[in-house]
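Table S2 (continued). Query chain:
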Amino acid sequence: MKLTKFEHACIAVEQDDQSLIVDPGGYTTDLVIPDNVVAVVITHEHADHLDKTHLQTIKDKNPDVTIVAHESITSQLGEFKTQAVMANEGIKIGNFELEFYGGEHAVINPDWPTIPNLGVLINERLYYPGDSFVVPDRAVEVLALPVAAPWLKISETMAFLQQVKPRLAFPTHDAILSDAGKGLPDGMLPGIAEQVGTKYQRLTEPLEIA
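Corresponding output:
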């Protein structure tokens, strides 16, 4: 499995000559779209995770691509091939087994309405919680770890990492940080990770996971 981290919350996973893209949102300006994309997973509807221009560009290059998301999103994407999913559901699409967790976005302000959010476990190895800290009910090998957002504190990121205990964790959801600001989680999280047997690594190039 090859993992590529793009800006902010966007991740691409390649498995046996097929690719899956997660959360190609508006903060992702460096997205490189392969011509073997079978699906795009959208965890929730916020613009930093869902950008229709990106979806259209992906579709132009991959006409049979399926957008996988909660019904609140797929109902808005009539121009695309979609598959609606919900929490505690698993599907297989191409070379990817997807399991979905959670159901709600983390609270930003208690007076604001809560929107759906689905964490996704990919091929029983890579977990990305979207905008939440929902812990899946099984072991996680690789964790995409949110490190900066209006809905989180770094102490919550630390606690989540300690609960999940992956073999490898890499930071995501970090476009709101300057280059200097990224040094904060990168300085604080490795020690926490080491305590639970996790390697913390910022991904600056594609990573092959055996």
